[in-house]
Amino acid sequence: MHAFTLLESKGLTNIQTSGPFHQNLHDSIYHVTEAHFLECWKVISGVDNLNSLQAKAPTELYDLASLIVDKFASSAPIDAINSLPEGHHDHVFYNSILWNHDVL
Questions:
Q1: How far is residue 18's CA from residue 79's CA, in Å, rounded to a whole number?
Q2: pLDDT, tens digit, for every residue of 33-66?
Q3: What does the domain layout of the chain look like in residue ranges?
Q4: Which end of the chain is more exposed for a tag (fewer CB within 10 A), N or C?
């Protein structure tokens, strides 16, 4: 709901059978996913500006992409969070990993 509000996606709070509902939902999911993975690129590569990645070799980019999947979109970090005591869960991070995992 928060993402729909930020994206100004009108009409996505209720499922509709007519109109552009499905296209708007698809577009919103795409935009949220793009934002998630752009941020993952910044975190995993340690850059402030994604344009800095243009200087990297294709093999380096591949390695970074593999790290993104391993750390931010696979079952391993989900299992690691689930193995922590209940009070130590980072629910925002956990939900972000679930989103990335599911959308891929």
A1: 40
A2: 999 999 999 999 999 999 999 999 999 999 999 9
A3: 32-104
A4: N
8 A C-beta contact, residue 35 and residue 43: no
Let me know: does 47 contact 53? Beta carbons within 8 Å: yes
Q: What radius of gyration, in Å, describes the C-alpha atoms of the chain?
A: 17
> What integer is the mean pLDDT of 24-32?
83
Checking if the pLDDT of 21 tops 90, the result is no
Helices (DSSP H) in 1-103: which residue ranges?
Answer: 2-6, 21-45, 58-72, 75-82, 91-103
Q: Give 86's pLDDT tier (boundaries 50, 70, 90).
A: confident
Separation between Cα atoms, residue 89 and residue 70, nearest integer Å: 19
Mean pLDDT in residue range 6-19: 61
From CA 89, how far away is CA 8, in angstroms rounded?
31
Query: What phi and psi, each to the nearest 5 degrees, are found at residue 30?
Result: -60, -45
Residues in the chain: 104
